[in-house]
Amino acid sequence: MSAVSFPKDFKYTKTHEWIKVTGKTARVGLTNYAQDQLGEVVFVEMPEVGRTVKAGDIFGVVESVKAVSDSYSPAGGKVTKVNDKLSDSPELINQDPHGEGWLFEMELGDQAEADLANLMDQPAYERFQAEAGEH
Questions:
Q1: Pairing mode, strands 68-72 and 11-12
Q2: Is 57 exposed, middle or buried (0-12, 13-18, 19+ CB in 10 A)?
Q3: What's the confidence (pLDDT) of residue 134?
Q4: Residue 34 half-sphere exposure toward CB, CA atoms < 13 A
Q5: In terms of pTM, does the model score above 0.90?
Q6: SS in 3 state form for 81-105?
Q7: Where are the domains of the chain?
Q8: 44-101 tens-digit pLDDT
Q9: Of 22, 34, 111, 110, which is closest to residue 72 (Cα–Cα)?
Q10: Count of C-beta atoms within a 10 Å radius of residue 15
Q11: Are 46 and 60 in contact (CB under 8 A)?
Q12: Thinking of the domain 11-133, which architecture would CATH place it in?
């Protein structure tokens, strides 16, 4: 199994979501490992703009030809934007999970520092993902 490179400036959850923080905002998506496990993504249910989520909240659903999977927010905050391209092209999650296949953006809440501290950095996530793939 060849190692997939995960972006170094992202943080990762044990449920295979990523978050990229820029100041007080963040972009959230599914990791390459998650999309690989799901297979061909055919539908994405996104959170509503304006919705407030907490770390660990289910914010949406990703449906693939193999499974339907809940998606969990890596941090708390207010949803400010969703990736509208996914409505017509959910396969972007498969094609570019760490780029064009992002799910939503949020304004981070006051507890964001604590939320982010509970996430894995890139080396820790790569170890976790490699161990998960060996089962």
A1: unpaired
A2: middle
A3: 56
A4: 27
A5: yes
A6: EECCHHHHCCCHHHHCCCCCCCCEE
A7: 11-133
A8: 999 999 999 999 999 999 999 999 999 999 999 999 999 999 999 999 999 999 999 9
A9: 34
A10: 16
A11: yes
A12: Beta Barrel (2.40)
